[in-house]
Amino acid sequence: MSTALPPLAAIRVFEAVARHLSFTRAAAELGMTQAAVSYQIKLLEERFGGPLFLRKPRQIELSAAGQRLAPAITDAFALMAEAYAAARGGIEGVLTVCAKVSFATSWLARHIGAFQLAHPALAVRIDATDRAIDFTREETDLAIFFGTGDWPGLQAHRLLAGDYTPMLSRDLVARLGPHYTPADLLRIPLLDPGDYWWREWFKAAGVNYEMPKLVYNLSSQAVINAAAKAGQGAAILSTALYDDDLAAGRLIQPFDLVMPSDRAFHLVYPETRRNQPKIRAFRDWILAELASG
């Protein structure tokens, strides 16, 4: 069985179709007709010896073989493009970072300017989102996940701990009185009261807390943080994300009790992309920035 590579043109067409899951959109991107795209895929599948796509009435899907092949092909093209840019004298292009909304609006928004100044030819695009990211289907270079750091196929670097504690506005602290205790928090509104972090924190503080049966959810720490600063209630938040609000007095941490978490914010990217110049540049920058305090 020959191990020779198929024609580069066919591989390029496969990468575009796999990324878009559409012959039409791939043809528009490549400046080809849809018939030409279909022909290149047909040639590639004949060379491969099996289907790379599953044709359905109104859509296509990658076959099992196509799913194995697509990420490596996409990474290979990205690596070639970045190697070319680096050989011309610098890292350039677009770097897309998908980050949890809370991380993007707090830490990353306050620091990304330093990275942009260090790499002026690299345009940074930040997608603040809490949805799941699929590196095989999306044009995403890196992401910020919150979890234990165990994501198969992804390289993960721990960034910030997920330790948490209550925070509230100065006006709400005044409402608690001069000698408040953890139990006094139950006298004011709790933001996102169904969050299990509240249950765990109150338990550690020796307070009996029954989570309400009907609760509202504010969707992200970023929204909860904004509501807390507006005096709408007490929030339970990650201390590492909102240390600037505490330092500036926009929020008050009323108790020393901080709960440790087995989850943390991580920088993640596919293991196959670890040597891409723009990924190395961002990884090295963010780890150094956090290490410097």
Automatic annotation (TrEMBL):
Single Gene Ontology MF annotation: DNA-binding transcription factor activity
Record has Membrane as a keyword: no
Coiled coil: none
CDD domains xrefs: PBP2_GcdR_TrpI_HvrB_AmpR_like (cd08432)
Record GO biological process: DNA-templated transcription
Keywords: DNA-binding, Transcription, Transcription regulation
InterPro entries listed in its UniProt record: LysR-type_TF_proteobact-type, LysR_HTH_N, LysR_subst-bd, WH-like_DNA-bd_sf, WH_DNA-bd_sf
Residue ranges constituting the HTH lysR-type domain according to the UniProt record: 6-63
Name the UniProt record assigns to this protein: LysR family transcriptional regulator
Annotated organism of origin: Labrys okinawensis
